[in-house]
Specification:
Elements: H1 3-26, H2 31-50, H3 55-67, H4 74-84, H5 89-100, H6 111-127, H7 132-142, H8 146-156
Helix pairs in contact: 1-3, 2-3, 2-6, 3-5, 3-6, 4-5, 6-8
Length: 158
């Protein structure tokens, strides 16, 4: 692998880690919130890699999964965190759009956004002890990736 690609991949990883560290500070001592974004991040990262996202899509997905659960006036807070961490404006704009629409299942425009929603739902279903019938109904309506469907089935023994 050429050194330029290694350096670019390493920078993306460092950027995501910097944002994750900032989010841990944002949540203070609330370990439930930290654990939630770590679960969503881990699942989204795996699904994105297995669905063969481009490097840019994978980066946007990982950033969005880390910051997706900011509370209150979400987008200005997310934008500020991403800027503090040195994330390029184009990536920050896309991540803000994904976060703003993380609950919108009607107009999912990109594969990375789809994966964010699938990872978030799997984690939410588990954390909220969602009844199996509701999981199945939502899965049929929302889940599109083969990997997301597989992870969902394995997580809930469907």
């Amino acid at each position: 692998m050429p050194k330029e690609i290694d350096a670019a991949a390493q920078k993306r990883t460092q950027d995501v880690n910097r944002v994750a560290l900032r989010m841990k500070q944002y949540y203070g001592g609330d370990m439930d919130m930290v654990q939630h974004f770590v679960r969503v991040y881990t699942l989204a990262k795996s699904i994105g890699e297995l669905e063969h996202l481009s490097d840019e899509e994978q980066f946007d997905l990982e950033l969005a999964s880390v910051v997706h659960n900011v509370e209150g006036d979400r987008i200005p807070v997310v934008r500020d965190i991403l800027r503090e961490c040195g994330i390029a404006e184009a990536a920050a704009m896309k991540v803000c759009h994904m976060v703003e629409n993380a609950e919108n299942y009607e107009h999912i425009g990109t594969l990375d956004h789809q994966i964010l929603i699938e990872a978030k739902l799997i984690v939410d279903f588990k954390e909220q002890n969602t009844p199996e019938k509701e999981i199945i109904r939502k899965a049929e309506d929302i889940f599109l990736t083969n990997t997301g469907k597989l992870f969902l089935k394995r997580a809930f023994h469907l």
